[in-house]
Amino acid sequence: MSVAVPQRSEISTASRVAPQTRTRGMLRLDHVTRLFNGSLDHGLQDVSLTCQPGEFVVVVGPSGCGKSTLLNLAAGMISPTSGTVELDGQSIRGPGPDRSMVFQDHGLFPWLSAAQNIEFGLKMAGLPRSERKDRVASALHLVHLSDSANKLIHELSGGMRQRVAIARALVMDPAVLLMDEPFAALDAQTRTLMHAQLQELWGQTRKTILFVTHSVGEAVRLADRIVVLHAYPGRIRREIRVALPHPRNFDSADINALVRQVRKEIEDEVNRVNRATSDAYWKPEAPADLDSDSGFMGGGI
Amino acid sequence: MLNVRTGFGNPISFPGWPRVSVDPQDPVRHVYDSPLVIANIVSLARLAVGFGISILIGMIVGLAMWRWKALDEFLGPPLLGVQTLPSVCWVPMAILVLGINEYSILFVLVMGSFAAVAISLRDGLRVIPPLYPRAGLMLGARGWRLYRYVLLPASLPAMATSLRQGFSFAWRSLMGAELILVVQNHGLGFLLQAGRDFSDVAQVIAVMIVMVVIGMLADRWIFAKIQSAIQTRFGLN
User: Fold this and answer.
1) Ordered structural domains, chain A, with CATH
2) Are B176 and B88 in contact (CB under 8 A)?
3) Distance from CA of B40 to the nearest CA of A (A)
4) Which residue of B has its CA nearest to A172?
5) Residue A142 reports pLDDT greater than 70
């Protein structure tokens, strides 16, 4: 689906022009290695990952494992040292409007209002004013922020800012939505609301989403597939398919069992890395505090 | 006033209160035809032209220094040095190179203020969160568009600060230059010096007050207002 708001597609001329291709949004990393100044620190080694159109893929892993590197490669902000990164068969050569990014610290422009921020990418793409207005209105409606259109960024709450950032990304009608720990800076209650909203949005738009987080709870709640990264060198350790139906009830026993299982995987990984990189005084049985969600009611029991 | 109360100084250099206030004999002529009004116009015109040039040069230099690190390392220390040099120290050079004319006054003004504009703009640009250009790139703002629609607006707080900084340097430089360089059009600095030449303390004090008032009004009513408007927009205060 290529429209930000399917149920209101009649107001967008672009929606009628753009082909409704369900195959759009296949992101493929093939044997990708990325070094930083010749070192594997934050780098990736021989990573192959394919996100199917409409799939929600969440990448988790310890810090320094190259999660953000993976996302930046997909965004085209950096290029691989070797291997290929492709979107729908086209090699990614730089940032482009077919891939939108939502950042942890929203990255909204403080000199623009919420609506102007959402309009920004459309303006850069050279769309006529009337169409921009329609699409901005739909995007605002999609994230339930129509009443805050003219507010400045500093007048919005943290959750509202992230919703504007998501609307700004979705209004471009990208093939892939890249999300770099988008809810990490929010409080637990707001984050839970955002998870529900993101599920709803994804259900409506069926974008391919590549989502990076260090929170296992978040990964299990949102993902179709969880990719656990290995650190030093950054490699895919395991892929876990989450077969639970969407939208999910975040308090269900299935979710909690899966959270425990995935957390165990990552704790093993963190301990392995720590053993490898620390001195003899390191106690490997020390619990890894990975899930910033542990305060979430019932989430990590 | 001083000699009335204390007898300090002689009556010529320190006249009593009435001499310092408006001439009661001819108030109309005093207001509309006085050298003070003309001097204000002359000085403000020079300020507008000179500070304009200074902003232009300062912003280009500041932007270039931010953009190219090598240039920053090359120009940064000398510019800081120039900023510490009192601007009247440019007067001898201005006279030798340009002669005693409007150009030499503008030269002193520009040399005295462009470094302040450049340095504060560069410093402000340096603190633009790298997330803004990244977000801009992801949204399709490439090449000049990135400068026009992301980096330029993102640098507005820095520009406001650099304007305010630059203005105070420009105003002081201009007054210093006018004090020494006597050219055909008489600015405030000339009037101040004329007061000294005629041993007229009333004029000296009056001109000094005008200088302070103009400097303060411009700072508070123009540059601080611009700065505060931008900071409010950005949610910085």
Assistant:
1) 21-109+174-295 (3.40.50.300)
2) yes
3) 37
4) B139
5) yes
In the chain, the amino acid numbered A22 is R
DSSP class of residue A245 equals P
Q: How confident is the model at residue B34 (pLDDT cuts 50, 70, 90)?
A: low
Give the pairing type, strands A90-91 and A39-51.
Answer: unpaired
A172 CB neighbours in chain B (<8 A) are: 139-140
Give the pair of three-digit tokens for residue A98: 């077919």
Helix spans in A105-172 (H): 114-124, 129-142, 158-170
Strand order in the sheet with A27-36: A39-51, A27-36, A82-87, A90-91
Q: Distances from the Cα of B122 to the Cαs of B49, B76, B166, in angstroms? A: 23, 10, 13
**Domains with residue ranges and CATH for chain B:** 38-234 (1.10.3720.10)
* CB-based burial label for B80 (10 Å; 0-12, 13-18, 19+): exposed
Shortest distance between the Cα of B145 and any Cα of chain A, in A, equals 8
List the 137-166 stretch of A: residues with Cβ below 8 A of B.
152-155
Report the pLDDT value the prediction gives residue A280, as an integer from 0 to 100.
55
ipTM over 0.85: no
Q: Can you list the positions of beta strands (E) in chain A?
A: 27-36, 39-51, 56-60, 82-87, 90-91, 99-102, 176-180, 208-212, 225-230, 235-241
Q: Which residue of A has its CA nearest to B153?
A: A111
Q: Got the DSSP string for A182-222?
A: TTTTS-HHHHHHHHHHHHHHHHHH--EEEEE-S-HHHHHHH
Q: Which residues of B touch A (CB under 8 A)?
A: 129, 131-132, 134-141, 145, 149-150, 153-154, 156, 233-235
